[in-house]
Amino acid sequence: MAKITKDMIIGDVINENPDLIQVFFQNGMMCIGCPASQGESIGQAAQVHGLDGDHLVNALNAALDA
């Protein structure tokens, strides 16, 4: 998978790499199974949930690189 960005759809990221679900959970994004996650970008979801989107994206990319 290419580098993850805030513009990517959560469902697409998870479908391509299901192991990243744990990274979402660890960073406070517990609604991965929510229907909105299938069409919502990482940046949008982070904003709605009061999370730091840049921190989340960095954590996701770090997990991909590991």
From TrEMBL:
SUPFAM superfamilies: SP0561-like (SSF140683). InterPro entries: CHP03980_redox-disulphide, DUF1858, ScdA-like_N_sf. It comes from the Bacteria. Residues 4-57 form the DUF1858 domain. PANTHER family: BSL7085 PROTEIN (PTHR39341), DUF1858 DOMAIN-CONTAINING PROTEIN (PTHR39341:SF1). NCBIfam families: prismane_assoc (TIGR03980). This is Disulfide oxidoreductase. It comes from Mogibacterium diversum.
